[in-house]
Amino acid sequence: MIKRVFIIALIISVVAACSRKYYPPVIEKHFIHDTVFVNVPPIPIVPPATTNPIDSLLYEVHTAGTPNFNLRKPNYVIIHHTAQNSCEQTFYTFSLLRTKVSSHYVICKDGTVHHLLNDWLRAWHAGISKWGNITDINSCSVGIELDNNGKEPFADPQINSLLVLLDSLKKSYNIPTANFIGHADIAPRRKDDPSIFFPWKQLAVKGFGLWQDSVIADKNVDSSINPMFALRLIGYDTRDSSAAIIAFKRHFMQKEGSKVLDEADKRTLNNLYRKYLY
């Protein structure tokens, strides 16, 4: 009898030792500041069981959770104009699922700032774009939309609010000065925002984006520097050289038009090339 009880106990202990274990993660509650979340599905604590992506590996059906994670940290700020006629029209566009477009902030002409999506979440504002080697700009940036149809100067209250917001973002996420750029810079073949009316120099003076020196001493352009190489080093996608040149001139020369770099353009490009290089 004693032997039978011992055998049964041994079997139970072996089965228990071989059974699959589930380790629930320690969950911490974090407060996220006022932000509107619409139809955001809950994130499961434990990933669901899936078919093995690599058939030579053994995967457990139940996975141990972990509390060691955070959301993405933005490292760029991308500035847009809405190309619409009011903030209300922009909000309506963002509310439609079929548009598949959103932004973290919208700033109206009167300077009112609307925070639509938490900075640590990924908004859909950049689209198909490229800056340097980065091809998923949405995953590393904050998008700011300015209420402007693209054919008019930007209102002073709007720019003043933008400067305050940029200062907060730069300090909060330690965003480098050079990483404040426009939608047209990262998508030169598709976009022209913010337009030539946007005051990039005013932003650069405050530390948001780079700008050429007021007096460029290099009267003779260094012919050893290939313009396409310089544009590529700054960050432009030069696969379409004409689009890259137009985007560069729109941002730094504040003009539209020619797809050819003149002498003033080249001096400016060389000056900026050195700033981005060092």
Please describe the structure with a list of short key phrases separated by commas or semicolons.
5 strands, single chain, Lysozyme-like, 2 domains, about 280 residues, five-stranded mixed β-sheet, about 10% strand
Average residue pLDDT: 83
Strand order of the largest sheet: 3-2-4-1-5
Give the number of helices: 8
Distance between the termini: 84 Å
At the fold tier of CATH, the topology name of the largest domain is Lysozyme-like
Tally of structural domains: 2
CATH class of the largest domain: Alpha Beta
Beta-strand level of the residues, as a percent range?
A: 5-15%
**Count of beta strands:** 5
Helix content: 25-40%
Q: In angstroms, what is the radius of gyration?
A: 26 Å
CATH architecture term of the largest domain: 3-Layer(aba) Sandwich
Low-confidence stretches: 10-46
Fourth-level CATH superfamily of the largest domain: Peptidoglycan recognition protein-like
Q: Order of helices and strands, N to C?
A: HEHEEEHEHHHHH
